[in-house]
Automatic annotation (TrEMBL):
<keyword id="KW-0030">Aminoacyl-tRNA synthetase</keyword>
<feature type="domain" description="Aminoacyl-tRNA synthetase class I anticodon-binding">
    <location>
        <begin position="319"/>
        <end position="459"/>
    </location>
</feature>
<dbReference type="Pfam" id="PF00749">
    <property type="entry name" value="tRNA-synt_1c"/>
</dbReference>
<dbReference type="InterPro" id="IPR000924">
    <property type="entry name" value="Glu/Gln-tRNA-synth"/>
</dbReference>
<dbReference type="InterPro" id="IPR004527">
    <property type="entry name" value="Glu-tRNA-ligase_bac/mito"/>
</dbReference>
<protein>
    <recommendedName>
        <fullName>Glutamate--tRNA ligase</fullName>
        <ecNumber>6.1.1.17</ecNumber>
    </recommendedName>
</protein>
<dbReference type="Pfam" id="PF19269">
    <property type="entry name" value="Anticodon_2"/>
</dbReference>
<keyword id="KW-0963">Cytoplasm</keyword>
<feature type="domain" description="Glutamyl/glutaminyl-tRNA synthetase class Ib catalytic">
    <location>
        <begin position="3"/>
        <end position="304"/>
    </location>
</feature>
<feature type="binding site">
    <location>
        <position position="239"/>
    </location>
    <ligand>
        <name>ATP</name>
    </ligand>
</feature>
<comment type="similarity">
    <text>Belongs to the class-I aminoacyl-tRNA synthetase family. Glutamate--tRNA ligase type 1 subfamily.</text>
</comment>
<dbReference type="InterPro" id="IPR008925">
    <property type="entry name" value="aa_tRNA-synth_I_cd-bd_sf"/>
</dbReference>
<comment type="subunit">
    <text>Monomer.</text>
</comment>
<dbReference type="InterPro" id="IPR001412">
    <property type="entry name" value="aa-tRNA-synth_I_CS"/>
</dbReference>
<keyword id="KW-0436">Ligase</keyword>
<dbReference type="InterPro" id="IPR020058">
    <property type="entry name" value="Glu/Gln-tRNA-synth_Ib_cat-dom"/>
</dbReference>
<dbReference type="InterPro" id="IPR045462">
    <property type="entry name" value="aa-tRNA-synth_I_cd-bd"/>
</dbReference>
């Protein structure tokens, strides 16, 4: 049997971290079992579903590189199929037309409530004589009476629900449209889904869906319901806890590897391992190891993982993601060092790509002014001599390499009998405009000769002006 899983988002908004984690678990279960992964867009709620949301969900999936083998299917394109099955069920007697008016249903519910009974359809139209086709009606599923539905949830273990608790579910509305739970059943069947991994908010739908599948003679998939993600205050994760949209994490400077690694561990574990490559996730993932308990989102840990991946992934790869941020921050990278080299130089210092982009601006663009505070501290009268001497020594270099640059700085300090910092700090402010940068040798090398020399000379003038004023 080929394992087949699906991710079935309702396109009513962006891809949020909870959805992404469910998608990841379904994707991993398929990949871990050499199976297939289906993307299905559950857009039956016409009022709330939008094309922008479909695009946003797919953009999020693509960014995380959760590739699907089949789909995207759209439920709205399958209405004929759902109706075909409903008609077959009407013939087979596993569904029936219900002519009850709203008022009657309301009265039944009130009476049940008054008696303290469970409120549900009383089965009035079960076995009712069919009326003319144009008499308004809904179609209800004939839920089995007596007995119970039992399923072995892959995450939560055995779950049993008595049929007494289940309604004769409406599967087609008066306007002829099939209802959500029914569409899901037909889809899971038609698409050959073997494992349904989804949020625990759907756990109540499962026994109903199993009953319909049984009535259709369809195989019953395995189900696994994943717990909620909570914010740090124990409430359900929402916008007020910070970013919840996957693409917001891209915008904030996270690598997809970091978010995936974070999400896989949020509710799943493999021993005490924290860092997982994509290959390791696929190798070790087992749906039975998903945690039943809700998990709390921890932004610090995500940030830590992000820093880990910025430091440890191939700089060429990180550079591809950094490129997006450079553009986003309006930095033209066509004139300056290769981005991968900037990544190598700065990766120890940045927690996010957004930060990394911002702090690499001086490699590509000249700055108007030195940072006022740093200039006040380091571009003072005493800096004139070391700046001028290092300027001379740099000008004399035959090659612009970090080794040669380093030697020039060291020689300056030795000759003037001052500490390296007395040369280094003025020089740093001179070439970067700011007080922080990677090692000066590599910084100057990457900034390039012409730009470095021009900036040092600007700093020399700045100090000279200051002495004279
Ligand atoms: N469309 C549902 C949702 O977005 C998922 C249904 C399912 O996975 O069965 O919550």
């Amino acid at each position: 049997m080929t394992v087949k899983t699906r991710f079935a988002p309702s396109p009513t908004g962006f891809l949020h971290v909870g959805g992404a984690r469910t998608a990841l678990y379904s994707w991993l279960h398929a990949r871990a079992n050499k199976g297939e992964f289906v993307l299905r867009i559950e857009d039956t709620d016409l009022e709330r579903s939008t094309q922008e949301a479909v695009d946003a969900i797919m953009e999020g999936m693509a960014w995380l590189d959760l590739n699907w083998d089949e789909g995207p299917y759209y439920q709205t394109k399958r209405f004929d199929r759902y109706n075909e099955i409903i008609d077959q069920m009407l013939k087979a007697g596993t569904a029936y037309k219900c002519y009850c008016s709203k008022e009657r249903l309301e009265a039944v519910r009130e009476e049940q409530a008054a008696k303290g009974e469970r409120q549900k359809y009383d089965g009035c139209c079960r076995g009712a004589a069919p009326r003319a086709d144009d008499v308004p009606h809904v179609v209800r599923f004939l839920n089995p009476q007596g007995g119970s539905v039992v399923f072995d949830d892959q995450v939560r273990g055995r779950i049993e629900i008595s049929n007494e608790e289940l309604d004769d579910l409406i599967i087609r509305r008066t306007d002829g449209s099939p209802t959500y739970n029914f569409c899901v059943v037909v889809d899971d069947w038609d698409m050959g889904i073997t494992h349904v991994i989804r949020g625990e908010d759907h756990i109540n739908n499962t026994p109903r869906q199993i009953n319909i599948l049984k009535a259709l003679g369809a195989p019953i998939p395995e189900y696994g319901h994943v717990s909620m993600i909570l914010g740090d205050d124990g409430a359900k994760l929402s916008k007020r806890h910070g970013a919840v949209s996957v693409m917001q994490y891209r915008d904030d400077g996270y690598l997809p590897e970091a978010l995936l690694n974070y999400l896989v561990r949020l509710g799943w574990s493999h021993g005490d391992q924290e860092i997982f490559t994509r290959e390791e996730m696929v190798e070790f993932f087992n749906v039975h190891d998903i945690n039943k308990a809700a998990s709390a989102f921890n932004s610090d840990k995500l940030l830590w993982l992000n820093q880990h991946y910025i430091k440890s992934l191939d700089p060429e790869y990180v550079a591809k993601h950094l490129e997006w941020h450079m553009k986003d921050q309006g930095i033209d990278t066509s004139n300056g060092p290769k981005l991968a080299e900037v990544v190598t130089a700065l990766s120890e210092r940045a927690k996010t790509l957004k930060e990394l982009a911002a702090s690499s601006r001086y490699f590509y663009e000249d700055f108007e002014e030195f940072d006022a505070e740093q200039a006040k501290k380091h571009l003072r009268g005493v800096a004139l001599e070391p700046l001028k001497l290092v300027q001379q020594k740099l000008a004399a270099l035959t090659e612009w390499t970090r080794e040669a640059i380093h030697q020039a700085i060291e020689d300056t300090a030795t000759e003037l009998e001052i500490g390296m910092g007395k040369v280094g700090m003025p020089l740093r402010v001179a070439v970067t405009g700011a007080g922080q940068s990677p090692g000066l040798d590599i910084t100057l090398e990457l900034i390039g000769r012409a730009r470095s020399e021009q900036r040092i000379s600007k700093a020399v003038d700045f100090v000279a002006d200051r002495i004279n004023s």
